[in-house]
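Supplementary Methods S3. Input chains for the assembly prediction are listed below.
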Amino acid sequence: MKPTAHFLTQLLRYSVLTTLALLFLAPLIIMLVGSLKADARVLVEAGTLAAFLPDEASLDNYADVFRRSDFLRFFFNSVLITSAIVISGLLVNSLAGYAFARLQWRGRDLLFNLVLALMILPFEAIAVPLFYGVSMLGLRDTYFAQIAPFIANAFSIYLFYSFFIGLPKEFEEAARLDGADTLRIFFTIIVPNSKPVFASVAILSFLTWWGSYLWPLMVTIGPSVRPLPVAITGFFTLPPLLWGDILAFGVMMVAPVLVVFIIFQRWFVRGVTASAIKG
Amino acid sequence: MRARFGDQTSTALMLAIPALLGLTLFILLPFLTALALSFTNLRLGSPLPVEWVGLEQFRRIFSDADFLRALANNLLFAAVVVPLQTALALALALLLNQGLRGATAFRTLFFMPVVFPMSLVAVIWTLVYAPGPNGMMNALLEQVSFGYWEARDFLRDPVLALPAIMLLSIWQGSGYQMVILLAGLQNIPQELYEGAALDGAGHRQQLLHVTLPQLRNPLIFVMLVTTILAFRLFDQVQIMTRGGPDNATTTVMYETVQAIFTRRQVGRACAMAVVFFLLVLTITWLQRRLVRQEREVA
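Predicted C-alpha cells for the full assembly:
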C-alpha cells in the first residue's frame, strides 16, 4: 500500500473510533459534569455544550446526597451483600468444581450433568417462586434473602471445573504420596495455581450482584437493607426532582467500581472473555 | 473399582454438598415449585381455597392483550437489538484489531459502560432523553438534521419509547460483545490470512472468507447471550417507563412482576415464568444446534 493511502486509512480509522468514543462517553461526562452543577442548570444546559463544561463547579450536590438520603447505609448494604456473595461463592463453588473435576466418586457424572442443566435457568425464571418462598417464611427485608440464594452458582462451578480439569495430574500425586489430605491439597496446591479462574469468577459475580436490581426491588421493603441500585431509583423519584443531586448519587455509586475496573481492567476483560470461551 | 470409588466418595460429597444444597434449595426447588404452582390459582393473602386449575393460567395469559403485547415487545427488542448491537460490536472489534496505537485505551472506553449498573444507566439516560429542545438527545438530533427534528418526549411517546430503551441497551451492552469478539479475532491463525493474501484475496474477501467463518462460534455466543438478555428486559422498563405509554414498553418480566407484586397472583406469575423459561430454553437449544452443525462440517 502507498504511504499516503496508508496514512488516509489510519486517519479514517482514528476518526471513526474517536467519534464513537465521544458518543459512548457523552452520557458519562454529562453525569460527572452535571453532578458538579447547580441543580437548576443541569436540565437547562443538557442540550448545549455547557453540559460538558463544569464552570462554577461545586460539591454542594454531594453534600445534598448525604443530607437527603442515607447514602452510607445503602453503600454499606451493597458492599456487605456483594462481598458476602462473592467470597462465600468462591469457596463453595471452587470446592464443588474441584470435586467434579479431580475426584473419582459415585454419582459424579449424573450430578454434574444436573449442574450443567441448571446453568440454562436464568434467575428471572425462579424469581417468582423464590419471592413466594421468602415471603411465606417471613424473610423479606433481610440480608439473608439477598445473599443466601446466590452463593451456590452453577455457572461458577462450571468455570472452576473447566479450569481444574486442565491442571496436570502430577500436581496432586506428589502431595498425596506425602500423605496430605484432599482439603490440604486443595488449599496449598490447587488454589495458588488457579488465580486466573478465581479472579474471573470473582469479577463476574461482583458485576452481576453489585448491579442487581430486580431481586432487591422485590424483597426489600424499607431502606434498612436496601442496596444502591434500588436506592438510586428511590432517590430519583424522591421529590423535588434535583438532577444535580441524582447525578452526584450516581457518581458515588459507580466511582469505586470504576477505580477497581481501571486498575484491574486486564482481569475484567479476561474474566468476561473466559465466561464466553468456556460457556 | 468399588474400593477406588469408595475411598473418595465421602470426601467429594463433603466438598460438593454446600454448593449442591444451595442449588437444590434456591434454584431446583423454586423452579419445580413454579412448574407446580402454574397449574393452580394460588394468590397471596386470598381467602379462597387453592385449586388445581390445569392449563387455565396458560390459557388466560395467552388471551391477555397485555401479556401478548409484552411478548411482541420482547421479540421486537431482540430482533432490533441483537443484529444492531452485534454489528456495532463487530465493527469495534475489527477496528481495534488493526494494531492501532492507543487501541487499549479505546477498548477501555467502549467497555466502560459494561461495569455500570443498569439502574444507574437508566437514570442517566432519562436525563439524556429529557423532553424539550434542551434535552441532550433532542438537541443532538436537531443538530444532525439541520433543524428539521422537532423536540419529542421520547419516554412518553408510544412510537419512540421502545427504540429509546433499545438504544441505551446497545450502549451498555456492545462493549461486552466487543471484548469477546476481539478475543475471537486474536485466536484466528495468522497463516489463514497469509494464505488468502497469496491467493490474491483483498481485504473484503479476507473478511468474508476468513474472518467471519472463523468467528462463527463467538458470534453465535454473543448473539445468544444478547437474545436471552432481550427476553430478561426489566430494569430499564421499570425505571424509565413503567411499561408505558399504553404498554409500548411492557415486557414479559415486567408483566410477571406486576402479576405477583401488585396483583399477588402467584399462579399466574408462575405460568408467565414458565413461558419465559421455555423461551430461553428454545433459544439455547437453537444455539447448541447451530454450533454443533458447524462442528460436524469441520
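The CA atoms of residues 82 and 209 of chain A lie 6 Å apart. Chain A has 15 helices and no strands.
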